[in-house]
Backbone:
């Protein structure tokens, strides 16, 4: 059982006007891709204490992203990855009220994370294996300072694991193994953190299989 297959359609739509995407390449890793721009407004320079989003040793998240040249885009992409880490942290901690995902999200994206985690908790499932994210893209929206972040997910090597027994349910690679994420990221006043505001998830994405 691959990740995110326990729910039906837990999707929040982003307005079509925000979905003008530009690819920022693939390869590399998002580790260390964060922080404000080289000449940021004062409201984005404050340091913050970020929550623990560590995962069990048997679950590995791979972010095969290239750092965008624009500092705001890089920060938005980094915290989009942190949102995914936080969501997985909540699943492995079996806590739908885990504060980590709330630190990196609000509105529809926070509701999505909570519902995903609750599905796993209610079903007695957690995750194991390797989950890969790649083909990242970023694009500023027409209004405000928000940035749309997109990326693909290959969950063909990520599996559901029964919490009580530890039994792993392995599945074969299939079109359902590939998904495409779009996240509307917004900067936070007085903080270097970017929040995921809204999220769409396209299942069985042909674009992510190529």
Residues:
């Amino acid at each position: 059982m691959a990740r995110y297959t326990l729910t039906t359609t837990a999707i929040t739509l982003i307005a079509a006007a925000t979905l003008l995407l530009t690819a920022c390449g693939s390869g590399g890793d998002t580790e260390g891709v964060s922080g404000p721009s080289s000449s940021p407004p004062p409201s984005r320079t404050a340091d913050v204490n970020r929550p623990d989003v560590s995962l069990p040793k048997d679950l590995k998240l791979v972010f095969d992203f290239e750092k965008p040249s624009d500092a705001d885009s890089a920060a938005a992409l980094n915290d989009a990855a942190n949102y995914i880490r936080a969501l997985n942290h909540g699943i492995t901690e079996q806590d739908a009220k885990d504060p980590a995902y709330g630190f990196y999200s609000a509105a529809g994206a926070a509701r999505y994370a909570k519902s995903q985690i609750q599905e796993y908790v209610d079903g007695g499932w957690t995750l194991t294996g390797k989950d890969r994210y790649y083909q990242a893209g970023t694009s500023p929206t027409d209004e405000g300072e928000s940035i749309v972040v997109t990326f693909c997910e290959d969950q063909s090597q990520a599996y559901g694991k029964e919490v009580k027994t530890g039994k792993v349910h392995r599945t074969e690679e299939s079109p359902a193994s590939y998904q495409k994420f779009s996240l509307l990221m917004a900067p936070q006043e007085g903080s270097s953190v970017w929040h995921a505001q809204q999220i769409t998830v396209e299942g069985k994405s042909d674009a992510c299989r190529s």
